[in-house]
Design a protein that fits this description.
Elements: E1 4-6, E2 18-23, E3 28-33, H1 50-73, E4 79-85, H2 96-105, H3 108-126, E5 133-139, E6 143-144, H4 146-152, E7 156-160, E8 164-166, H5 180-184, H6 190-199, E9 202-204, H7 205-211, E10 216-218, H8 223-236, H9 238-251, H10 256-270, H11 275-289
Parallel strand pairs: 3-4, 4-5, 5-7, 6-8, 7-10
Antiparallel strand pairs: 1-2, 2-3, 8-9
């Protein structure tokens, strides 16, 4: 039995780009990106806009507060953070139109500010938000660039078959600079990580499951149930799961300073792009705009299991 409650943070405005729920029966905090009414906006693109980044940060802060309160009462309690999407895709990555505008303006400060917002969110997820939390990415649609980085920052990736994932940044002269190399190197060899970042290949969820990047592979439509099964499994071994988190945290740390250093390289590279690269980004922006969900599709993912 799942008791689903909308997440509320006292004094904070309701999010417009996220659909949030708290399953009190399992202490699971569900976050669905690209929710109504954003998806009904004619120019909405399911990517990391500055607004989405801000709302993800607020969701993280609210979740940390709730998990901290629960941990004070039950120190060995295990909570879950689930990141999913209401759009036909998981997330298409960086805000390419913003990149084009800021590069043409030569606005290094704004590009740096955007990149730091991205890696702040990635670092929060990679460190699990709270010592008593386990993060899960539920990937039911394509995850590109920063969208794949977001999934890789989670401890468990549940993906449905037929999903495409990869780093297309090389097509317009960039590289995935919000943690991709550091996150990939935790799961695959540095050689494989570099190849994935530089080849521009789109991999199927089946491919990434064979590589060990996707942890749980299920049939289309079975992702939510698979997440509930993961949560139940982790709760049965909560003390062991939390202990292993501590072991892994020490063995494979990714300091925020490392992510910030890489974003500085990313900004330098972005400001060296040529006009042809910017035109490629603009073509991709137009393609992204065709991927907004129809009203009937929004809310297609239920959290009850």
């Amino acid at each position: 039995m799942h008791t689903i409650e909308p997440i509320r943070r006292e004094g904070a405005a309701a999010p417009s780009l996220l659909r949030l729920h708290h399953d009190a029966s399992s202490d699971a905090h569900w976050c669905f990106m690209h929710a109504q009414p954003a998806s009904a906006q004619p120019d909405y693109r399911p990517c990391f806009s500055p607004g989405l980044l801000r709302e993800l940060r607020l969701f993280a802060q609210a979740s940390i507060e709730q998990i901290s309160e629960r941990a004070r009462v039950a120190p060995a309690h295990l909570s879950h953070i689930v990141l999913a999407s209401d759009a036909p895709v998981y997330n298409l990555g960086g805000d390419l139109q913003l990149f084009v505008d800021l590069i043409r303006l030569r606005d290094r400060e704004a590009l740096t500010r955007y990149a730091r917002q991205c890696v702040d969110n990635i670092h929060l997820l990679q460190t699990r938000l709270h010592p008593n939390a386990h993060t899960i990415a539920l990937v039911q649609g394509d995850a590109l660039g920063g969208g794949l980085e977001l999934a890789l920052a989670c401890r468990t990736i549940v993906a449905e078959r037929g999903v495409q994932m990869g780093f297309p940044e090389v097509l317009f002269g960039l590289f995935p600079g919000m943690g991709a190399y550091s996150l990939l190197a935790q799961r695959v060899s540095p050689h494989v990580a570099e190849e994935m970042m530089l080849c521009g290949t789109m991999y199927s969820s089946e491919d990434l499951h064979r590589l060990g990047l996707v942890d749980v592979l299920v049939e289309p439509g079975e992702g939510v149930q698979a997440v509930h099964e993961q949560i139940r499994k982790h709760r049965r071994i909560a003390t062991a799961r939390l202990a292993l988190h501590r072991v892994r945290d020490g063995a494979h740390p990714i300091p925020l300073a490392e992510l910030v250093r890489i974003t500085d390289i990313w900004v330098d590279t972005a400001l060296q792009l040529e006009a042809r690269h910017l035109r490629t980004m603009e073509r991709l922006v137009r393609a992204q705009q065709r991927l907004q969900p129809a009203p009937a599709e929004v809310g297609r993912t239920a959290v009850g299991g």
